[in-house]
Write a structure and sequence with these properties.
The chain has 199 residues and is α+β, with helices and mostly antiparallel strands. Helices cover 30% and strands 16% of the residues. It has four helices and nine strands.
Length: 199
């Protein structure tokens, strides 16, 4: 401390005024730099949220390629539904949850963007359609690529896998109990989905 006082005592008067001024400018510059670095981060987050949304893609199965979401969750159509109309609500929608339309709808794999659409359900939520068929999940599928709902006749009509053409797949799917990724990554989807968080 004595050394600092000694140094200040030997410093000319004009320099003593510059040091606090320079310190204030440095603090102000650091504050504006922090503000400017946080702005792009929030802009990037906003940009990321605007580009996210429901992705419909495809997976290979023993009965042919079928539609899934980006997380590998199988989607179904219900034979009882009309074109661009859902007849599944209440207990039906609890067992067969509608695929929600969030953000931008995107097609990947063999799915066709021109076949993607949405309908507004009676509760006001948006549901994804493909070639006019409302799409659903099945609560009995607990891992990516599972097709436990295939051919079920719950609630008075059949539930089918959906082909990339938009047609129902009526064959039995026996090879899709596990996800289709390469062997190096095949264990990752089953372990991440074991926690139960479908996206």
């Amino acid at each position: 401390m004595n050394m600092i006082r000694s140094l200040l005592a030997r410093t000319p008067g004009p320099v003593k005024l510059i040091v606090p001024l320079a310190s204030a400018l440095l603090v102000a510059a650091c504050g504006s730099a922090a503000a400017s670095t946080s702005a792009p981060a929030s802009s990037a987050a906003a940009a990321g949220s605007s580009t996210t949304g429901t992705v419909i893609t495809t997976q290979a199965g023993s009965a042919g390629a079928f539609l899934t979401t980006a997380s590998g969750r199988t989607v179904y159509l219900w034979a009882k539904d009309g074109m661009n109309m859902s007849d599944c609500s209440g207990a039906c929608a609890s067992a067969w949850p509608p695929v929600p339309a969030t953000g931008t709808l995107t097609a990947a794999g063999s799915a066709k963007a021109s076949d993607l659409g949405t309908i507004t359900r009676s509760d006001g939520t948006k549901q994804v359609t493909y070639d006019g068929h409302p799409l659903y999940y099945f609560v009995g599928d607990s891992a990516a690529g599972q097709t436990n709902g295939q051919g079920s006749d719950n609630f008075g009509a059949k539930w089918w896998l959906v082909a990339p053409s938009g047609a129902q797949i009526t064959g039995t799917d026996t090879a899709a109990a596990a996800p289709a990724p390469t062997p190096a990554t095949s264990s990752a989807p089953s372990s991440s989905n074991a926690g139960g968080g479908w996206s």
